[in-house]
Amino acid sequence: MRPAVEWDALIERKGGYRSVCRARPLRGANVLIDPDDYVCIDIETTGLSPARESIIEIAAYRMREGAMDDAFVSFVRPDKHVSSFITSLTGITDADVEDAPLPSEVLPDLKDFVGGDPILGHNVSFDMNFIHDACLREGIEPIGNDFFDTKNIAKWGLPGLENGKLETVAEYLCIPLGVHHRAGADVETTVRCYEAMVKGREPIFRRK
């Protein structure tokens, strides 16, 4: 299986890419890298604003040379109602999260799980901004790891891609989408897209 992206050519064009968020100086930078070892993260939220909305689900897979080493998946109790729109999008209801751990409990565990690994995600600045702001609200030092984005890799490396949505990238690469807009399924799809684009391999997921 050949990588779908010509990585050397991409690095020649975009090498040294590093985007920082001046409004969030404790957040890591968005970079263009191709590690074998990383943690892939996805979150679901009550809305789009990190300042006003809440995380309701977090999933993270620790990957080691194309194989899942461990997984972290948790609902998170929000400080607001889960709207009918979010339920229609994710399937997550108020009942799912009403007894879930609080952000003050989940975020330290997530930090411990991530450790020093680079973080992968799709449109990952969204996830990292939410996690950064949630950490600050809870008095927790934000995760400062650098992160890299399958959306950028696809946008820059896949010719003729219609748009950068995860489902579009997955379809381009002939990867099944799974239950879209659930954190665990989106993490798995993101890992599959990264491994297909950059490493040319099918990842192995350990089922519990």
Could you characterize the architecture of this molecule?
- The chain has 208 residues and is an alpha/beta fold.
- The chain has a single domain, classed as 2-Layer Sandwich (Nucleotidyltransferase, domain 5), CATH 3.30.420.
- The protein is 37% helix and 18% strand.
- It is built from 8 helices and 7 strands.
- It has helices at residues 7-14, 84-90, 94-97, 103-114, 124-137, 150-157, 166-172, 183-199; strands at 18-19, 30-31, 37-45, 55-64, 67-75, 119-121, 147-149.
- Strands 5-4-3-6-7 form a 5-stranded mixed beta sheet, sandwiched between helices.
- Strand 6 (119-121), helix 5 and strand 7 form a beta-alpha-beta unit.
- Helix 6 packs across helix 8.
- The longest helix is centred in the C-terminal third of the chain and has 17 residues, at 183-199.
- The chain is globular, with a radius of gyration of 17 Å.
- The chain starts with 6 loop residues before the first helix and ends in a 9-residue tail after the last helix.
Summarize the structure.
By secondary structure, this protein is of the alpha/beta class.
